[in-house]
Amino acid sequence: MDRRSFLKTGAALAVAGAMPSVARAQESTITFGGSIPMTGTAAETGLNVLYGYRCAVKYINEEMGGVEIGGQKYKLGLNLFDDASDPARATTLIQRQVDEGIGFFLGSFGSNIVLPTCAITEAAGRIMVQAGGGSDLIFTQGRKRVFGIFPRASLQFVSSVNMFKTLDPKVGKISIMYTNDAFSEFQATGARKTIEEAGIEVIDYIALPAQVSDVSNVLTTIRQNAPDILVCTTHDETSTLITRQMVATNTNVPMLYQTLGPQTAGYRDALGNYANGVVTQAYWSERATFECEYFGSAAKFAEYYAANFDRTLTYHMASGAVCILAYVQAAKIAGSLDVDAVRDALSALDYNCFYGHLRFTPEGDGDPALLGPLLVQRQAGDIEVIAPGEVASAKPIYPAPSWQDRA
What we know:
Residues 1-25 form the signal peptide. The protein is α/β, with parallel strands linked by helices and 407 residues long.
């Protein structure tokens, strides 16, 4: 395929139905296709990733005047559609964009959507860079054209266990609760393995259905067994449901750790002061000392974002933005928009930027030694980094106050 397959002259810098066109007709525009949950169950985090995509495109177009590749200047454009958190709708939209000649794709949010859509782009010889799918199945089935900013799910828990081992009083027993979906189960499996290898007992390993409406019976078991830490590898809405029902049933644990949910403004708004003390993962912090030519630094990314967007900043925005940067850097290194040349450059990418040290494994997921999660905790309404210690902004609050004392 020649590069014209991946360019659109005067293409709209647009998310369908969401942003107006600002590209001028005489400009060559690199258009990124894909879908994102703007509505539906995954919309809270999907919109965060979308705003990260928008932020990077706006900065490169307006502050840097575009990007030069192979001696030619290009603007960037987005052609992203609302998949409504529905894998079937997403696959239809992605296939349509493949048929239209889009070559560079950004990922949706949720492994249940990334898995089928990256299968389409892979089969068509296109590329997907994404910050929404961490299931091992994305990266262990021989794909060569999908890249993930995060490590695969089974390798995401090392830093968490390292933090658990530093807590006082000592952590002796942990319960794990997970939903039966492509991401959460792999993450729970990796968590259990890493926890047990550290000599900590896993006393409960509880599978929930993919769609959860009630966990009251499960919480009876948690109260009876009294773990030191309850780990929930669950998505946003389920995490909120679990916390609400823990409050309602007075199910207290010294540490509640939920891998997705507590990072979001929606979780905070739903739970108020009950969100304080909950621990979660974050793959980026504006307090980190990362720097690069884009945005300048982690802190300056946060400043630029706050000056231009009104949606509350989370690490998902930074993760979305760095997907764009990965493409741009790879194309600059390749000196070309040829899809195979960009793919090869992505595979070999080794780049320090405002997000951190960006490098992929041979299978395409984020290098776990470089792109693994920080641990954060809501404390007095603010999100504080509690591990690793060298970048921590606060010490863990452990044991956490009872729900009654947080009201």
